[in-house]
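Input record, target 12 of the design panel.
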């Protein structure tokens, strides 16, 4: 005769598996977004392209920066800022638990993508100078995903995400790499 598993244990197991998947995703190669390294390697490996290899590398750096920063911005707005402003994170709010889990995943995802964007920015001199002062702000977001997931984040924490995202967007715009929000799918958040 099958026994029923309490809802709390089921949620705990689901949350743990999401954290493990997100952790494994964060440990992956954050410099690669959907196979972009293959194009870079072929441009550098071809001797006939050697004259424009650095220009191609800079173009790819900007493209990757825009993609990674856009994903971070989209995830932050969609699953952290918007639900927070709607009051979904408050105790007793309908859908709070799911919103907190998604916010925690989005926080870890955004941190990972911002680190990748900062790494990508190093490939372009102008972008590198614009983004370099923001690395400390990116690092300050490191533990906020966990804080969001546990429901311990406040207005200052959500504001920190917004502030860093806005700074990255402005730095990209000033360097000729305009960042637009791109909301990742839920499957992208979990790996």
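The sequence produced for target 12 reads:
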């Amino acid at each position: 005769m099958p026994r029923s598993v309490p809802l709390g244990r089921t949620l705990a197991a689901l949350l743990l598996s999401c954290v493990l998947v997100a952790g494994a995703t964060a440990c992956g190669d954050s410099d690669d977004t959907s196979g972009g390294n293959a194009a870079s390697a072929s441009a550098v490996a071809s001797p006939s392209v050697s004259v424009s290899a650095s220009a191609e590398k800079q173009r790819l750096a900007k493209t990757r920066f825009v993609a990674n920063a856009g994903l971070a911005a989209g995830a932050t707005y969609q699953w952290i800022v918007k639900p927070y402003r709607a009051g979904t994170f408050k105790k007793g709010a309908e859908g709070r638990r799911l919103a907190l889990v998604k916010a925690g995943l989005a926080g870890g995802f955004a941190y990972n993508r911002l680190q990748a964007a900062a790494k990508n920015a190093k490939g372009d001199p102008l972008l590198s100078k614009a983004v370099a002062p923001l690395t400390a702000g990116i690092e300050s977001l490191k533990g906020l995903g966990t804080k969001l997931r546990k429901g311990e984040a406040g207005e200052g924490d959500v504001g920190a995400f917004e502030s860093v995202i806005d700074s990255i967007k402005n730095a990209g715009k000033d360097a000729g790499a305009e960042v637009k929000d791109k909301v990742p799918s839920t499957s992208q958040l979990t790996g």
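Residues 24-51 have pLDDT under 50 and may be disordered.
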